Amino acid sequence: MNPAALTAANEMGFAQVYVLLAWEEGEAPRKLVGVWALQVRKIAPFWPAVLEGLPYNYAFLSSPVIDPAFIDEVVPAFLAAIRKNPALPNVINLPSFNAESPDHDAMMKALAARGGEQLRFAESARPFVTREFGVKRSGSTRKKLRQDWNRLSALGSVDIVNERAPDAVRQAFEQFLALEAGSWKGTQGTALLCDEEDAGFVRRLISGLAEQGNASVALLRIDGLAIAAQVLMYCGTMAYTWKTAFNADYAKYSPGALLIDKITEELFAGPGIDAIDSCSAEGSFMAQLWTGRRKMVDLLIAVGPGKSLGFTMEAGRQLGYRQLRDLRNRLRAGIWPPHPKKIRLASPS
Questions:
Q1: CA spacing 20 to 30 A to 201: which of 14, 88, 193, 342?
Q2: What is the DSSP string of 84-148?
């Protein structure tokens, strides 16, 4: 929800973004105590619109940003503002919501007080690491990383660069885009360069963040050739490993894992970063590098009291989508018969 990101999404028409701002009015000048950016999404002309907690594609957190001293006041105020605004849907989809944040507990409390509906589609454990906890210091993973680094170093001069100057970030991001397009994502048509609109947005996104010093692209190079790239974003003392790509010709050396390991070490060696959020699924390769986890949930909520047709329709659509996705994954994995997993739903009591 960095303003540079929201401005890029809005000005490029990449998403229909609404921003809720909460102010403390008791003192002069008034103080901003809460921000929540959401997008309006409508999948079909006659299908009810919903609010999406990820304000644009390629965002990775649905949680609002709230001053801890005002959480119990701001969260109910946000829900009330959505309820009162006729331009905003009352059904909110919240994928990748931080379940360990005070925002989550305040959200559940406010929903219960309003009689709002809630469905919890899924829970996951996102790889997460702090300066004090989560980095694997020993074991088979650490041994393999040392071996891979030594084997790669035998091929030539290996180095890692992670410059923060805006022009350097933009140039490194182009190398990331090229690596991603040359990977299996490019073959399957899911790389960023496969879609002109997506490519234009992420270039604007990274450029805007880089101008603030809030983005970089770490490169693992051999004899000056980038063989792996990790896009990083920064907010305060938190770093986010947003997207990664590597050259498949060097896959046996685990270049992506090597780069993440070295960058983790580099970020924690300085005074600025205290934690790193992987922005990735719990089964990703980062789960093998870090033992730390952050509990995430996928939620669907309705801010109004009583039953909502829009909520029921969106819940059914998402349940069907998740079942079909699980079926596809099982077929790809050769699991037969491909019985989909049962999804357990939880509603507030």
A1: 88
A2: H-TTS-SEEEEEEEETTSHHHHHHHHHHHHHT--EEEEEEEEEEEEESSS-B--SSHHHHHHHHH
